[in-house]
């Protein structure tokens, strides 16, 4: 038996924190590693010790296995937990950890190797009698052989990278004419992403469910499963919503699928936590998809219905202890649903978002669990995956779990980067999901025309404008020599009228705010008139009465003209005071400063010094998180002091150019 009392967690974000909590609960010491981008990250602050391992790109830090092992040895750690992603399924890293005299908290490298190759793993599963999707996983990888086998497998057909996952190196082919093109694209993507162009072919199942089984095995040959998870709601083959148990599972089907999952683990002499993934068709037949040889992102739903701590079980198995329970002792109690909160923009085809977290306020309540890797003030980095948190809710029934999750999401505040919070609320509320009918085609079918982002109503804009007006007035008054209260908002010509020029959800508006009496305002917006009464405003939240109805919001005022809001029962948006932004800068003559909203590569520069621009004119394009983002002009004016250059790497907040407004030019 190999005992240890200190663990290095070779990961970052929410999974690093989640593992560390259990390490501490076991009375052990935990060591964090971090890149330049994560120097102030929550997981670094939480650990007993943290070791810097390199620059921000993952290849120079979290994927640098030798540096991680050196960090463990230097910090006196005796074991390494890889979390998920990065090196968690890298057989060479697992071997190197053991060779360094450390314990790798995961399966043996041989099991990782077999299950990490789709072709090899499928051959192993067929030999073990585990049902597999009809296809081709042979060693002959010539285009001619693949095209020939494609015709034999039939259509629709999936062409997949043998060495990878996550939707990369994967193409759906509907007819024979598209085979050659799909093979060429899939092979190129696979080679670039995984260093191997090997492919497999599989018959594409129409509208299947993605159902996976959590398995656990010890060093004594004991293998059990802890029930299933339905992970069918996906976008680009990335899971978005997961739940346990599967809505259509029956005791007989669970018995059959669970037995197949256990046999899959036995076939590769598995140890530790693993997940065997299946596709379940409409006829109730299931087929092996792949095995993830690590802890899954969605493991909390299993924990919430079994009452088990899967990380604790990993630590026990890694120390040579036998499994703490037998198959007959596993019981699923209630229902749990998890959503992944991503910093991404669903209205723009789920483009990743980066930048500072202006305000993060996670939900609380009965049956609510939040695993997060951010705090207010954190930076969502363009170097890593855009998932920032997981919100999980348990209930006695699926309906109760779903309702609790809806409430929890509505109470979740993530201001700063764009997020998929409102999309998740819509998806959970969709009738087909509520009925438990969602398949892997759910998002593509129900959101074929894209996702319509939340657009604030005239009442929302009126309330936000009044809040901004009041906060600005308070800030200005605090900077002024004492002004008597009776003179505030007073105007010699009658009720004080102010005009606020704002930009919200991509559109520019001019709102007129007229003070009627203390705490009451009338706001005109393109003919729509709203009466707003201020009831409560504190540092983070407010309650207003808009046209006789209560309006509540959490907010963050950045002080530079941006007001971020999360409106109760509605959505989240940002109100930008264009003139406040235009008056920013260190110099009285300087125009608004156009800064990089994230780390990125300047792909295009669409304007030059002296060019006139209108509000919304494309200024330049940044590439971050492998996506391209257009930076637009916040007002009309003339370009000045361009500092950006095509091909240059810029940091978040770095000055790109200035714009002299039209008012300054006249």
Description:
- It contains 18 helices and 39 strands.
- The protein folds into five domains: 100 residues, Rossmann fold (3-Layer(aba) Sandwich), CATH 3.40.50; 70 residues, ATP-grasp fold, A domain (Dna Ligase, domain 1, 2-Layer Sandwich); 237 residues, D-amino Acid Aminotransferase, Chain A, domain 1, CATH 3.30.470.20; 122 residues, Glycoprotein, Type 4 Pilin, CATH 3.30.700.30; 83 residues, RNA polymerase II/Efflux pump adaptor protein, barrel-sandwich hybrid domain (OB fold (Dihydrolipoamide Acetyltransferase, E2P), Beta Barrel).
- The chain is of the alpha+beta class.
- Helix 4 runs antiparallel to helix 5, helix 7 crosses helix 8 and helix 12 packs antiparallel against helix 13.
- It is globular.
- The N and C termini lie far apart (80 Å).
- A hairpin with a 2-residue loop joins strand 11 and strand 12.
- It has an eight-stranded antiparallel β-sheet, sandwiched between helices. It has an eight-stranded antiparallel β-barrel with strand order 24-25-26-27-28-29-30-31.
- It catalyses: N(6)-biotinyl-L-lysyl-[protein] + hydrogencarbonate + ATP = N(6)-carboxybiotinyl-L-lysyl-[protein] + ADP + phosphate + H(+).
- InterPro entries: ATP-grasp (IPR011761), BC-like_N (IPR005481), Biotin_BS (IPR001882), Biotin_carboxylase_complex (IPR050856), Biotin_carboxylation_dom (IPR011764), Biotin_COase_C (IPR005482), Biotin_lipoyl (IPR000089), CPAse_ATP-bd (IPR005479).
